[in-house]
Design goal:
179 residues, alpha+beta, GMP Synthetase, Chain A, domain 3, 2 domains, four-stranded mixed sheet, 6 helices, globular
Length: 179
């Protein structure tokens, strides 16, 4: 399933949820059904991760591949069984960001992760340039949020410039709460 098909599925799910709200009893029973299915699937996904992790190095390589696939990674986060911690996912994404920024003479470091809010420090700006270009900031946000859409916030600070928090989009968050 490609990105376009995935987005279309999400749109259809949202439309069906809205249609179900027209009948409170049907909505309640459907929400109950979805919750039971989510619990069952969660147990199954957790068992899959457990089974794969038993296979030593090969299993660890498979788990890494799972974590690098955006769709699979999102599923693992949904069921709270992602093999990498939030900190690991952010660190891996930062390596990609650093490689991209290196050619531009820029550098980014992780200042902190507190309560799911990541604070990054960006350095190496040209003299007289006091702010991050919109494109550069968007690139950093996309890479970090792609690896860790479950963040509570992302703040990118540049030397001597006040940090601006990023509002987190709802897309990519658990759909269970919508039921």
């Amino acid at each position: 399933m490609n990105q376009e098909e995935t987005e279309r599925h999400i749109q259809l799910i949202d439309e069906l949820i809205e249609a179900l709200k027209e009948s409170p009893e049907t909505h309640r029973r459907t929400a109950e059904l979805v919750q039971l299915l989510m619990e069952l699937h969660g147990v199954c996904v957790a068992r899959l991760i457990d089974i794969v992790s038993r296979y030593g190095f090969a299993g660890q390589e498979i788990l890494k591949a799972f974590s690098k696939d955006e769709l699979v990674s999102g599923l693992l986060m949904l069921y709270d069984v992602h093999p990498l911690t939030l900190e690991q996912r952010v660190a891996d994404a930062l390596e990609t960001v650093r490689a991209s920024l290196k050619d531009r003479g820029r550098e980014v470091t992780l200042a902190s992760i507190d309560d799911g809010v990541v604070r990054l420090k960006l350095s190496g700006a040209e003299p007289g340039c006091e702010s991050i270009s919109a494109g550069l900031k968007r690139e950093i946000e996309e890479l970090i949020l792609g690896a860790a859409p479950d963040l509570n916030g992302l703040i990118v600070e540049e030397a001597n410039v006040e940090a601006q928090p990023v509002l987190m989009p709802l897309q990519g968050q658990s759909r269970a709460a919508a039921s």
